[in-house]
Structures are given as structure tokens and as C-alpha cells.
Write a structure and sequence with these properties.
With 464 residues, the protein is of the alpha+beta class. It is built from 15 helices and 22 strands. It has a six-stranded antiparallel beta sheet with strand order 2-1-11-10-7-8, with no helix packed on it. Helix 14 crosses helix 15. It is globular, with a radius of gyration of 24 Å.
């Protein structure tokens, strides 16, 4: 995939010249923390009394996570994070605002002044077209690349935030590949893939006989990722009962298998991702503040595709070229057809659309997609094969219900059956090419390999 992608990118017009960007300085001019300063440049930052914040205040009238700041083009975006006492810009209460410099922000008893850093004194946006398999030439992506390079050069934990389909797993893998741990494993753990009853075993492993069905000892993902990177996808969906156990594993650098008595040392770099607003999840008690503190030492926010301007054409051409010479020239009518579409499924939706167009032609897409039906393009080309809604799938569900199989076990069996049918069908559609099948599925290549291994393992264990 990487070599094909590099060849594809060389075939596309060069990115624009490096451009100057701006930064902002937030300075406390009155209040308990007078004199403190915060520079806002390439990453989203937080202001509040929590230790996780980038600007930590001691003002008792300021919330733990009071507001968020980020640079968008040449403006400073200010977001109130549902604070108790509100955020005021030039004495006007705001939920969110775009500032240009010179404004005054008041939170609690703290008064801060916003100062624009002139472009000639600010950082330069690069000319990169990609960071690993994450593509884009827009200013927002250049900021992501710059910050991701800094993260990769360190060994700190990082949380990647963004809507579904923005490429969080691809960014995590790119950070791993650019880090000193690149020769170690990159292990993916999806918090939405397993029921809660099996999640602890998947995280930490289990000993043989530790519970019904534990017919062999199993290593958890911490053990599998030793010496490398553990990517925890959709961390916001992790059951709250498991959060203290995950926190303990990260803090102590050691884990204990379910049913085990000894502690196993682990040398793992943690990257996490979420589509959820973790600040709100913490405030509403669904996510532990101390775990968030450990995971979000650094934070990267991947922008949705609708905010990335010309990246749509760049990505579409790159995806088309990566399909190989057999795809032929890029169809200019593709861009005309989807002009004005907001791509609610983000990069994943665009990729799926390009792959389907190449495989089936314009007729394969049916009627023009509807703005209120973002899932209309989420299914890969094999949708017509009946994956997920076949009579056989319905028969399995009915049999599980009829036999009164316990809910958690029934869900596990139904999910495995779906995964088996889906993966086999889409792999067959692309002639066994895992890279293209993973692209069309909208998931990472390594995760697709994990699904394949899981399916093959389950089939080996089935009774004849």
C-alpha cells in the first residue's frame, strides 16, 4: 500500500508553497494567576483548574476544564466547555467565538488578553502531502503533521480525537512508524469490538481454566504490544468498571492475567482514539478524570473532511491513482457529481466512494447520495451480496433466540458470524487483495489482518 500510495502521490500536482501561519498568546493580566501565559499554535489546548489542562489556573470560580482554544486559519477559536460560571469575550458571554487578537477573555476572577503572533514570527506550515497513510495538503492537515512529528519523536501517551472516518487509526500507525518503537509491534484494541464480559481478558489476558470457556492461556494486548505501541480505539466506549484497571496497568507498567497471581511487566507506548467528546464524558461522570489525565498527555484533533477544502479533490485523485494503472484516468465527472457534498463519513466515505466508482462505475452508486443518509455510501461494493441481512444470518439469530443462548454469548456468536461473512465476501470481491479489501472496508490493514486471524482461529476450533 505504502509504495503504491507514494507512486500515486507523485502523479498528483505538487502542493502549494509553504505558507506562514499565525499563533496566539493568552496572558493572564489579573486574577490569582496573574503573569501566566499560554501559546496556542498547532494543537487544541485546554484552560482550567485540572492538571490535564495546558494552562492550569487556581481560580476557584474556574471549572476543571473551562475552555478549549485552537487556531483555525488566522483566527483563534474559543470554546466554552459547559463551564459552571461561563466564558466572556469582551464582557459578552459566549459558547464559542472566533477571535482575531486584542480581545479580553474573562473566566471566573481571571482576566486574560489575547495577542496575535505576527505571521513572520510564527511557525511555517510545511509542504507535506502525507504523514504515513494520512493524506492532505490543507493548512489544518499541515498543523496535524507538525504536531504528530513532535509526538512521534517522544514516548508520551497521546489521544487522537475526531469524527468517525477521519483516519485516527492511520494517524496512530503513522506515529508508531515514525517513532523509536517502529521495530516493535503495533497492536490495535477496539473498545467497541467485544462485550464487557470479554474485554478484561482481551486487555490483560487470562490463565487456562480461569473461567468457563478459557480452554487455554491467552496473552492480553499489553503483552502482545510489549516493546511497541498499543493503540486503544474508541477509548470513550470503555466500560467504566474497567477504567481503573486500565489506569493501574498504565501507571504501574505491569498487568495481571484474569485468574493469574503474578504481575507481568510491560513496556508499552499508549495511543488512544475517540469519536466522543471526552471533556464532556469526564464532566458527566462516564470517564475517569485520572485516566484521561494519563491518556491525554498530548491531544491531536483530526478535522472533518468538510473543513478541509481542496483536500477532497487531492484525496480523490490519490485514492484513484493508488488503485493502479488498471483504474485508468481519473474521472472528472466524479468531482462534478459530488460538488457540495459534506462527506459526513469523512475520508472513509470518500475512499469507499472512489473504490466503488472504480469497481462498478457510476451506475454502482445508484441515485445521488442524500445529505440526511450518511450511511448510504458506508457499505463496500459487496453490499449487494446480502452481507449482514442474508437468510442465513437471520436463521442464526432466530436459532440463538430459540435456544435461549445467554445474551452476551449470543451477541458474540452473531458478531463473529457477521465478521466471517463480511471479511470473506469483500476479500473475494478484491481477488484476495487484503490492502484493497481493507481500504474498501474503511479499516486499517493491520486490523483487517487481525479479523482474518480471528476468523481462521474460530473455524479451526469449530466442531466438524
Amino acid at each position: 500500500m505504502e509504495n503504491t500510495l507514494k507512486d500515486a502521490l507523485r502523479a498528483i500536482s505538487a502542493p502549494p508553497e509553504a505558507a506562514a501561519t499565525v499563533g496566539f498568546v493568552l496572558e493572564v493580566v489579573s486574577g490569582p494567576d496573574q503573569g501566566k501565559r499560554l501559546t496556542v499554535a498547532s494543537a487544541r489546548v485546554l484552560v482550567g483548574t485540572s492538571p490535564i489542562c495546558d494552562l492550569v489556573l487556581t481560580d476557584e470560580r474556574v471549572s476543571r476544564r473551562h475552555l478549549a482554544l485552537s487556531v483555525e486559519d488566522t483566527t483563534l477559536r474559543v470554546e466554552d466547555l459547559q463551564s459552571t460560571n461561563g466564558t466572556f469575550a469582551n464582557e459578552i458571554r459566549i459558547a464559542g467565538a472566533y477571535l482575531h487578537g486584542g480581545e479580553k477573555i474573562t473566566i471566573g476572577k481571571t482576566l486574560m488578553v489575547v495577542t496575535l503572533v505576527p505571521a513572520e514570527e510564527g511557525e511555517k506550515l510545511g509542504r507535506a502531502v502525507s504523514f504515513g497513510r494520512v493524506l492532505g495538503t490543507s493548512p489544518k492537515m499541515q498543523r496535524v503533521y507538525a504536531f504528530a512529528r513532535k509526538i512521534a519523536a517522544s514516548d508520551i501517551s497521546c489521544t487522537i480525537e475526531g469524527e468517525t472516518g477521519t483516519g485516527k487509526e492511520q494517524l496512530a500507525e503513522a506515529i508508531h512508524d515514525e517513532s523509536t518503537r517502529t521495530k516493535g509491534p503495533f497492536i490495535v484494541f477496539d473498545c467497541t469490538a467485544l462485550p464487557g464480559t470479554l474485554m478484561e481478558s482481551a486487555l490483560f489476558g487470562h490463565e487456562k481454566g480461569s473461567f468457563t470457556g478459557a480452554s487455554a492461556t491467552r496473552r492480553g494486548v499489553f503483552e502482545q504490544a510489549n516493546g511497541g505501541t498499543l493503540f486503544i480505539d474508541e477509548i470513550g466506549d470503555l466500560d467504566i468498571s474497567l477504567q481503573p484497571k486500565l489506569l493501574r496497568a498504565i501507571q504501574r507498567g505491569e498487568t495481571q492475567r484474569v485468574g493469574g497471581t503474578g504481575w507481568l511487566k510491560s513496556n508499552v507506548r499508549i495511543l488512544a482514539a475517540t469519536r466522543r467528546d471526552l471533556d464532556r464524558e469526564v464532566q458527566e461522570g462516564r470517564f475517569r478524570d485520572d485516566l484521561f489525565f494519563r491518556l491525554a498527555v498530548a491531544r491531536i484533533e483530526l478535522p472533518p473532511l468538510r473543513e478541509r477544502g481542496a483536500d477532497v479533490e487531492f484525496l480523490a485523485r490519490a485514492f484513484w491513482a493508488s488503485l493502479g494503472p488498471s483504474a485508468g484516468p481519473f474521472p472528472t465527472e466524479f468531482l462534478a457529481r459530488y460538488r457540495g457534498h459534506t462527506w459526513p463519513g469523512n475520508v472513509r466515505e470518500l475512499l469507499n466512494t472512489v473504490v466503488r466508482w472504480q469497481a462498478l462505475g457510476e451506475m454502482g452508486l445508484g441515485e445521488r447520495i442524500q445529505e440526511d443518509a450518511p450511511e448510504s455510501l458506508a457499505a463496500p461494493p459487496v453490499a449487494s451480496a446480502g452481507v449482514g441481512t442474508s437468510p442465513a444470518a437471520d436463521d442464526l439469530v432466530q436459532r440463538l433466540i430459540r435456544e435461549a443462548v445467554p445474551f452476551s454469548k449470543a451477541r458474540q456468536l452473531a458478531a463473529l458470524d457477521f465478521e466471517r461473512r463480511y471479511v470473506k465476501s469483500i476479500l473475494e470481491s478484491f481477488g484476495g487483495n487484503v490492502t484493497k479489501a481493507a481500504q474498501a472496508s474503511g479499516i486499517g490493514r493491520r486490523y483487517f489482518h487481525m479479523l482474518l486471524a480471528k476468523i481462521e482461529g474460530s473455524e479451526e476450533n469449530e466442531e466438524p
